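[step 3/7] inverse_fold.run input=structure_tokens len=150
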């Protein structure tokens, strides 16, 4: 496995240490869990949806937590009192914990559970102060650029 030195980035760029740490964590050989299967969908210009197939789980057995620009989805299956004998067991109902790293200004706005699918809706809300602005020459009024109108 290769290792990368991000020291040159730290010497010439300010405020990108979080990005370098994210790259470093991605390059590590930490296997991302494949259970439960999920999709990440771009549903609008600044809107995203994570859909997780959580068949066999009830709403009360699922937990969604947002902390420090990270999203953690946890499923804890309650153990049954009655022992069952399966001839074939193809529906996975093991406990899971899946983490997603959220970019700056991405917020979780809602979640729904329907037909064995957990949908988590996210939106990127860029603050007004960070939007591009047009500065007129010899003028005093700075205008926020509307990228959608262009």
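[step 3/7] decode complete -> sequence:
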């Amino acid at each position: 496995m290769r290792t990368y030195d991000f020291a040159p980035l730290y010497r010439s760029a300010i405020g990108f240490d979080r990005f370098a740490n994210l790259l470093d964590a991605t390059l590590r050989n930490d296997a991302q869990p494949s259970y439960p299967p999920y999709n990440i969908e771009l549903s609008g210009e600044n809107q995203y949806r994570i859909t997780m197939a959580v068949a066999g789980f009830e709403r009360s057995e699922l937990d969604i937590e947002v902390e420090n620009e990270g999203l953690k989805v946890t499923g804890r299956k309650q153990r049954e009192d009655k022992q069952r004998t399966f001839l074939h067991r193809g529906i996975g109902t093991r406990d899971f914990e899946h983490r997603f790293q959220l970019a700056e200004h991405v917020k979780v706005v809602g979640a729904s559970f329907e037909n064995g699918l957990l949908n988590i809706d996210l939106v990127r809300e860029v603050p007004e102060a960070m939007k591009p602005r047009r500065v007129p020459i010899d003028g005093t009024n700075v205008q926020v650029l509307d990228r959608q109108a262009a």
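[step 4/7] annotate
Residues 38-79+91-129 form a domain with the Immunoglobulin-like fold (CATH 2.60.40.790).
The longest helix spans residues 17-27.
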